[in-house]
């Protein structure tokens, strides 16, 4: 298909957009999943728990969630969520172990990790800089009730995007005691000159 200059740019229409761009694209990698058949609310809470975590720690955390060794705190979508003792580690009271959400996020993180390896980044220093979960269009089904009625039986899928960035090592400024000049007030300088202590 030939696109003339007067028509809108049709090539850009199918391009995948992320809600934000990494600060340093050469030291970052991205991955996303669209229309994932997993609960939006559970996935949102799980994603918020691993945000800003190092990649290796996030993968270990999600594996522990699947085995119920660590819990996901439910802070936003917490209506009728039970209180759990494990949630005290997060300074919270309510939490769950959303196994399916953990599995989907693990797949996404492993995809992003392989993208990082392909780009030549150091996977040991990767941190989850950005992770976002958005609602996808609901999938409609129906359930049949008594007296010939029909009720909706909807699912709440979601879109997930993640950006991993290589953590830069902090270099401390060397302390030079030799090159430092001690600042003194003019009054003190006059007193030193008068005594001849210099």
TrEMBL record:
Q: Which superkingdom? A: Eukaryota
Question: In what ranges is there compositional bias, type Basic residues?
Answer: 183-198
**What GO biological process terms does the UniProt entry carry, in alphabetical order?**
cytoplasmic translation
Q: Which Gene3D superfamilies match?
A: Ribosomal protein L22/L17
Where do the segments described as Disordered lie? 175-198
**What span is annotated as the signal peptide, if there is one?**
none
Q: Which GO terms describe its cellular component?
A: cytosolic large ribosomal subunit
Q: What InterPro entries does this protein's entry cite?
A: Ribosomal_uL22 (IPR001063), Ribosomal_uL22_arc-type (IPR057265), Ribosomal_uL22_CS (IPR018260), Ribosomal_uL22_euk/arc (IPR005721), Ribosomal_uL22_sf (IPR036394)
* Entry annotated with the keyword Ribosomal protein: yes
Molecular function, one GO term: structural constituent of ribosome
Task: List the keywords (alphabetical).
Answer: Ribonucleoprotein, Ribosomal protein
Pfam (any one):
Ribosomal_L22
Q: Which PANTHER family match?
A: 60S RIBOSOMAL PROTEIN L17
Q: Which HAMAP family does the record cross-reference, listed alphabetically?
A: Ribosomal_uL22_A
As for family, the record states: Belongs to the universal ribosomal protein uL22 family.
- Stored NCBIfam families: PRK04223.1, uL22_arch_euk
This protein is called: Large ribosomal subunit protein uL22
- List the source organism: Setaria digitata
């Amino acid at each position: 298909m030939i696109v003339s200059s007067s028509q809108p740019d049709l090539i850009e229409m199918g391009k995948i957009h992320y809600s934000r761009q990494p600060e340093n694209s050469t030291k970052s990698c991205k991955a996303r999943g669209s229309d994932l058949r997993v609960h939006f609310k559970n996935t949102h809470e799980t994603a918020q728990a691993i945000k800003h975590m190092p990649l290796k720690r996030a993968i270990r955390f999600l594996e522990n969630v699947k085995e119920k060794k660590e819990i996901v705190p439910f802070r936003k979508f917490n209506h009728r969520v039970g209180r759990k003792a494990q949630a005290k580690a997060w300074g919270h009271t309510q939490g769950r172990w959303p196994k399916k959400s953990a599995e989907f996020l693990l797949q996404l993180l492993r995809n992003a990790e392989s993208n990082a390896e392909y780009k030549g980044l150091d996977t040991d220093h990767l941190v989850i800089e950005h992770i976002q979960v958005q609602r996808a269009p609901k999938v409609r089904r129906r359930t049949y009730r008594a007296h010939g009625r029909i009720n909706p039986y909807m699912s709440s899928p979601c879109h997930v995007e993640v950006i991993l960035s290589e953590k830069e090592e902090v270099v401390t400024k060397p302390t030079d005691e030799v090159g430092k000049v001690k600042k003194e007030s003019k009054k003190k300088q006059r007193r030193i000159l008068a005594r001849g202590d210099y």
